[in-house]
Design goal:
Shape: flat
Order of helices and strands: HHHHHH
Mean pLDDT: 79
CATH architecture of the domain at 53-118: Orthogonal Bundle
Number of strands: 0
CATH class of the domain at 53-118: Mainly Alpha
CATH topology of the domain at 53-118: Helicase, Ruva Protein, domain 3
Number of helices: 6
Radius of gyration: 44 Å
Helix content: 55-70%
CATH superfamily of the domain at 53-118: Cytochrome C biogenesis protein
Strand content: under 5%
Structural class: mainly alpha
């Protein structure tokens, strides 16, 4: 005969057993979701070995167009720049580093294709002159502002004669009296 206690114990067993299956189902669902997210993310990046436009532009930003003056390779739309960007993409796909690609273009076309000239030899002046001009300008500004601020020797101040509030100096009173008498005449 099935008593109330036995039914309660059986119900508790099924609840606990169901909880175990519930935890297992949640764990499998979470693992499946993580797997799907990772596979979608790797599909979007193209996986290892593919070259993205950002990779090409990272190198192209360091080079200038051979045709257009003062135009970075990553923004120039001439056919020569498109060809160069395609060559950069091919070299990156082949496993070349950014510096190897830049060295290739410098060997082919000279240092004029570099967006940032190396800081050596005559090119060192490109780095030194602006810094020297900045320092000289700051020094000149300091000298001019120091002169304008009035840091000069000032004459010693002559103390004013002490006057009591209700009392006027005698020479002033005498002068006022003379002028009043002169007016009355």
């Amino acid at each position: 005969m099935d008593t109330g206690r036995e039914r309660l114990r059986n119900a508790r067993f099924f609840l606990l057993a169901g909880s175990h299956w519930l935890h297992l189902a949640l764990l499998l669902t979470a693992l499946l979701a993580i797997f799907l997210l990772v596979s979608v993310a790797s599909a979007q990046t193209g996986g290892p070995g593919t070259v993205t436009p950002n990779d090409v532009n990272r190198v192209a930003r360091q080079l200038y167009c051979p045709v257009c003056p003062n135009t970075p390779l990553d923004v120039c739309e001439t056919q020569a720049c498109k060809d160069w960007r395609e060559l950069i993409r091919q070299k990156l796909a082949a496993g070349a580093s950014d510096q190897q690609i830049i060295d290739y273009f410098v060997a082919q076309y000279g240092q004029r294709v570099l967006a940032q000239p190396p800081a050596r030899g005559f090119n060192l002046l490109v780095w030194i002159i602006p810094l020297a001009a900045l320092i000289a300008g700051a020094a000149a500004l300091f000298v001019v502002l120091h002169a304008w601020s009035g840091h000069r020797a000032r004459p010693a101040a002559v103390p004013a004669p002490e006057v009591k509030p209700n009392e006027l100096p005698a020479d002033y009173v005498a002068r006022v009296e003379r002028e009043l008498q002169a007016r009355r005449k």
